[in-house]
Write a structure and sequence with these properties.
The chain is an alpha+beta fold. The protein folds into three domains: 48 residues; 82 residues, no CATH class; 43 residues, no CATH class. It is built from four helices and seven strands. A three-stranded antiparallel β-sheet has the order 1-2-3, with no helix packed on it. The radius of gyration is 30 Å and the shape is elongated. Pfam families: Ldl_recept_a, LDLRAD1_C.
């Protein structure tokens, strides 16, 4: 700001006849003023339109969350929704772009590849955020234990046992240990696991 004020002070001082010989010629002053006005206009326009520089790796519609879950970035470039909220019948983005026909018209083919996970059974698919969530969303556990799923081992809130009955694949929530219901084939969730 001080530098800009100094330039303006110099330019206006140059306008007086007494200092004309010591300062830049009037033509040069006009060019400098024109460039400054252009810069101010561009910055003002960018602020008015709310334009922000893109983060490295940013692309429209893609967002990776802090948990490395792939999400859908709304047109406002601020709102990120989980993949499973796209084409779910409820508009989660301000302008409803997560429910547009071009995105939801022919599921899963119309969805971008980063939003879906293909199960071992080629006829089945799940949303990307349903992979490695502990639940048997594919029906054959390929979203939890399959090589393409590449899930991390069970976390501390889970009990590891394989195979698992019902809706889980290899990890059972510790909250369900000793609940009187068999979740592990070995019954370890009822006799060994501590909630």
């Amino acid at each position: 700001v001080l530098k800009t004020m100094s330039v303006f002070r110099t330019l206006f001082t140059c306008a007086s006849p007494r200092c004309a010989r010591l300062c830049c010629p009037p033509r040069r002053a006009f060019i400098v003023l024109l460039l400054l006005a252009a810069i101010v206009a561009i910055v003002g326009l960018a602020i008015a339109l709310g334009l922000q520089p893109h983060a490295p790796g940013w692309s429209p519609g893609v967002m990776i969350t802090t948990h490395n879950w792939t999400g859908f970035l709304c047109d406002d470039r601020v709102t990120c929704i989980p993949a499973s909220h796209v084409c779910d019948g409820a508009a989660n983005c301000r302008n409803g772009e997560d429910e547009q026909e071009k995105l939801c018209g022919d599921l899963p083919r119309s969805l971008p590849a980063y939003l879906i996970f293909h199960c071992s059974n080629s006829k089945r698919w799940v949303y990307a955020d349903q992979r490695c969530n502990g639940m048997n969303d594919c029906g054959d556990c390929s979203d939890e234990t399959g090589s393409l799923a590449a899930c991390p081992p069970c976390g501390p809130a889970w009990w590891s046992c394989s195979p698992v009955h019902y809706q889980y694949c290899s990890c059972v929530p510790r909250a369900q240990c000793r609940d009187g219901v068999q979740h592990c084939v070995s019954w370890s969730d009822e006799y060994i696991c501590r909630p």
